[in-house]
Amino acid sequence: xxxxxxxxxxxxxxxxxxxxxxxxxxxxxxxxxxxxxxxxxxxxxxxxxxxxxxxxxxxxxxxxxxxxxxxxxxxxxxxxxxxxxxxxxxxxxxxxxxxxxxxxxxxxxxxxxxxxxxxxxxxxxxxxxxxxxxxxxxxxxxxxxxxxxxxxxxxxxxxxxxxxxxxxxxxxxxxxxxxxxxxxxxxxxxxxxxxxxxxxxxxxxxxxxxxxxxxxxxxxxxxxxxxxxxxxxxxxxxxxxxxxxxxxxxxxxxxxxxxxxxxxxxxxxxxxxxxxxxxxxxxxxxxxxxxxxxxxxxxxxxxxxxxxxxxxxxxxxxxxxxxxxxxxxxxxxxxxxxxxxxxxxxxxxxxxxxxxxxxxxxxxxxxxxxxxxxxxxxxxxxxxxxxxxxxxxxxxxxxxxxxx
Length: 404
Fold this sequence. Notes:
Elements: H1 5-15, E1 24-26, H2 28-34, E2 37-42, H3 52-60, H4 65-70, E3 72-75, H5 79-91, E4 95-99, H6 105-113, E5 117-120, H7 125-139, E6 142-143, H8 150-166, E7 172-176, H9 181-193, E8 198-204, H10 209-215, H11 237-246, E9 249-253, H12 255-269, H13 275-286, H14 288-291, E10 295-300, H15 307-320, E11 324-332, H16 337-347, E12 351-358, E13 368-376, H17 380-392, E14 396-399, H18 400-403
Parallel strand pairs: 2-10, 3-4, 3-6, 4-5, 7-8, 7-10, 8-9
Antiparallel strand pairs: 1-2, 11-13, 11-14, 12-13
Helix pairs in contact: 1-8, 3-5, 3-8, 5-6, 8-9, 9-11, 12-13
């Protein structure tokens, strides 16, 4: 069986009644920033909050009665796991999910909540997959691959069918890439419906296996990534062949760019997105000049980001935007200093949210004290204005942003 338009349309017909037709929405604020129209395909609203539920269901519907009775097994960092677990439970099929050690707790818990048996093994998908094959053979389970399967990729390709039905005038679609199943399925579907549409892939710079193959260049595997859902070192061979034929270009995003993009989706569009979707937006930002005047679609492929990680990301984003800033003072150790500083900050329109006042450390002289005040401001310019007023009053103060 090969991945083609006929398979995608048949697969879509099979899964349509049990999957969510997610909306494609105009990203008003981001479009203003970018200077062109950006449309977001909200697969974070799909069952299990990721597009993977489409391909998982597609594969499960092809099982024989014997295979369904024996059960299935999958290997996934989280989204494919939840998709398989959810639909397997709904269809009464036993499911075992092998997840890499270190998978975010929320993804492990949600997979278990859907009724699957979870086995933690390995440090990533590539280390876990052989163990999964062995366990499948031992228990007589059918392996449901997250991307290297034409039926799974056909299910993912249904995303493109919906996007072009909802926004037929799209000039370009940006798709995050891990193992290549999503972009392969979407490229086949999109090019069949609208041959002139441009397909751009987005990868994390730390896991750029597909871009390296596409550009005939060296790979870069640099450790952990916020986009763990696309942290794949060995993409599917059939997917690579389709990508080489149908995808127009592939770009990468750094960890800092991905983090900033996830924050922007939350801050500007009020959307919870995981790192893979952030990679897509980061690539769009990098290509903004080339995309000027076009209507661009982005697959917000999932929203399963760990809540603890998200809270830290939000705080870092506020610091990066200047909305939270730490000011460090060297003050004379006498009464009234803190009161005066607080008064000036308040009159400047900023808000004090944390104070650390210490005398015992030896970084300052005996008759002085070091004071750290964390303030909330409108933006970086507001912080600068506040600093200016404090210095005009005679205080020696610096902000972390000035040190950086």
